[in-house]
Backbone:
């Protein structure tokens, strides 16, 4: 039997003082913030994730000397420092707490609340956008639980072995570290992507918040005191005043039909399976979806604001869309919470109306309108549900079974699958409507319809749409305008993506114009002089929901060029459309030998082309190539095979 003096004793655990922890935090700050950003739930949105990651890291300092955690060292040796191990453990613990759901029976933890510091006013911050691989990894991480994300990041970012990860997760408060490791093991480890700029909350882009709404908030703040007194008096009036209607203005009439349109109990709701048996595939067969379809108070506020929006409500409408009250009870499409906002979508046969308000009140409510009359099939397959942090979410039609992201500038790349919830809501994807920099990518949404819909011909199997800044995304097609409206040639799939690859960036000119669809038609291929290959002539036509305001661009694409060049354009013209499927356009082109030429082309039904003015000449057939001087101008005229005349677009 050993005496007490001779018995072996465990090595003492060193204490970490505040100075050691601060030194470790300052030295490894970017690494710790990246760790917190990756573990935080993506549902917070990128702006709040950035600020929360910085806040959690800055609050990781201990208040006094603290025993160092008995945790394994990193492969790099940095985590062997007691100060770094302590700070990393605190960051991981609070990041996991921030992802826990709020419960009514318990007080929220500090990490679950929006950070007090740091705060940024007037700007939204988010990391630099990466490529398709980073987007795919972010979507897969968002599907994991918080402990599983932490396990994946500790293995990929901290390079810890599984036993070490298990000990760190247990010390951070994870309930089942083994289950977290099994869940994280499903994803292949991609260390390089975890260290990319997509997940670096210390290298940020800045964009302004909603400037119009911010100005309205400033005006509202100046009259808050007076408004409070007036609201108090109105709430005491018979009938409850106008408080229950939230941001709606006071009622101005008691019209029976208008009152019926404001009653949530009279909202039209389609049966969940109505689209399966209906002869129509439009918005009238969309069922009411979302977790708040039974919230009568929310629906009443949304209808009241639609009928009489108050002065603080931001109202927007696509060109040619009336923004008045509904003529009768509208149809409810969606009511739920999306990205920390309550959103309601209505359909009245002519318009989609979107009402949105913050989760914590009605201040800053927004009301948006878009025309969708005559929409059917692919044109009624998706509606924009929410935009935030340069991303967009869609509510898809009940017949949509899969969604994917396509980069139109890279048609050879594969689709990036987009998660589709049981309610038909897509995961967030980058929106080209919110991008203002150089055009290096153009993301479009590819929707796959159920076979029972496509078999009847009511909607194509695949539909390609893109966000142009409105509620209804624009449909992208690639077909001869003289062919049928659906399913002709390159109407869907690979043909559409290849046709749009050189011309996708030209879609930026159509933002906010109420565009219903944009068709790309390659009407001619022309051998280039001096053996320079073959150039492609493509006509892109943007048609609007209101009928007027169409835009036609004749674009020319030379071999090896990434983008097409606009050769001519026209507005409110029937050219390149079903009514007038003819086009004639020309462009000055310089060969590799330094010689300038006037190139012109028409459709296959063009019998001859003639140029006059500073360049004179003619050619039989739809193609013309004449030597010209730099800056020369010419008038183009053509004769069709049926004897008709056509003039060139300018």
Residues:
């Amino acid at each position: 039997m050993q005496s007490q003096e001779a018995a072996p004793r465990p090595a003492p655990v060193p204490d970490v003082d505040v100075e050691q922890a601060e030194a470790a935090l300052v030295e490894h700050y970017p690494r710790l913030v990246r760790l917190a950003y990756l573990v935080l739930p993506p549902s917070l949105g990128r702006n709040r994730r950035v600020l929360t990651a910085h806040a959690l890291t800055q609050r990781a300092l201990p208040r006094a000397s603290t025993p160092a955690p008995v945790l394994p060292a990193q492969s790099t040796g940095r985590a062997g420092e007691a100060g770094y191990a302590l700070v990393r453990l605190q960051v991981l613990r609070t990041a996991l707490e921030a992802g826990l759901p709020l419960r009514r029976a318990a007080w929220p933890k500090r990490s679950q609340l929006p950070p007090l510091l740091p705060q940024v006013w007037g700007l939204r911050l988010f990391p630099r956008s990466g490529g398709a691989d980073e987007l795919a990894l972010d979507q897969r991480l968002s599907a994991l639980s918080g402990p599983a994300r932490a396990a994946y990041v500790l293995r990929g970012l901290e390079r810890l072995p599984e036993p070490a990860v298990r000990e760190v997760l247990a010390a951070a408060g994870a309930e089942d570290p083994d289950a977290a490791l099994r869940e994280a093991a499903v994803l292949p480890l991609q260390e390089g992507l975890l260290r990319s700029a997509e997940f670096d909350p210390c290298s940020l882009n800045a964009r302004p918040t909603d400037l119009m709404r911010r100005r309205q908030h400033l005006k509202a703040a100046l009259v808050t005191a007076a408004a409070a007194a007036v609201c108090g008096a109105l709430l005491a009036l018979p009938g409850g005043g106008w408080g229950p209607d939230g941001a709606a203005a006071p009622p101005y009439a008691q019209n029976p039909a208008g009152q019926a349109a404001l009653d949530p109990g009279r909202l039209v709701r389609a049966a969940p399976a109505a689209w399966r048996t209906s002869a129509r595939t439009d918005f009238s067969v969309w069922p009411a979806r979302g977790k708040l379809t039974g919230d009568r108070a929310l629906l009443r506020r949304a209808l009241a604001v639609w009928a009489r929006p108050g002065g603080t409500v931001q109202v927007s409408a696509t060109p040619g869309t009336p923004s008045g009250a509904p003529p009768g009870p509208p149809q409810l499409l969606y009511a739920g919470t999306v990205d920390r906002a309550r959103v309601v979508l209505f359909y009245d046969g002519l318009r989609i109306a979107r009402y949105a308000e913050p989760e914590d009140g009605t201040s800053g409510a927004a009301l948006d309108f878009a025309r969708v009359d005559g929409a059917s099939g692919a044109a009624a397959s998706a509606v924009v549900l929410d935009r935030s942090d340069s991303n967009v979410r869609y509510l898809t039609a009940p017949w949509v079974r899969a969604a994917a992201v396509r980069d139109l500038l890279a048609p050879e790349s594969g689709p990036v699958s987009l998660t589709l919830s049981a309610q038909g809501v897509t995961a967030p994807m980058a929106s080209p409507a919110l991008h203002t920099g150089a055009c290096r990518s153009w993301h479009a949404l590819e929707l796959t319809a159920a076979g029972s819909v496509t078999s009847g011909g009511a909607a194509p199997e695949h539909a390609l749409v893109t966000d142009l800044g409105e509620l209804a995304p624009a449909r992208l097609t690639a077909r001869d305008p003289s062919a049928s409206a659906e399913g002709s040639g390159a109407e869907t799939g690979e043909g559409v993506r290849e046709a749009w690859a050189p011309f996708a960036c030209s879609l930026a000119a159509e933002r906010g114009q109420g565009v219903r669809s944009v068709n790309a038609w390659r009407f001619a291929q022309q051998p280039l002089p001096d053996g320079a290959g073959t150039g492609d002539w493509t006509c892109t036509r943007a048609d609007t929901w209101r009928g007027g305001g169409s835009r036609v661009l004749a674009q020319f694409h030379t071999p090896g060029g990434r983008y097409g060049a606009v050769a001519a354009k026209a507005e409110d013209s029937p050219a390149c459309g079903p009514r007038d499927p003819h086009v004639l356009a020309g462009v000055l082109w310089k060969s590799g030998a330094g010689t300038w030429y006037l190139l012109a082309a028409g459709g296959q039904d063009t019998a001859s082309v003639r140029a006059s003015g500073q360049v004179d000449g003619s050619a039989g057939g739809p193609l013309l190539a004449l030597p010209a001087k730099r800056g020369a101008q010419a008038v183009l005229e053509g004769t069709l095979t049926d004897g008709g005349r056509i003039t060139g677009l300018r």
Q: What stands out?
A: Residues 140 and 187 are 8 Å apart (CA to CA). The chain is about 25% helix and 25% strand.
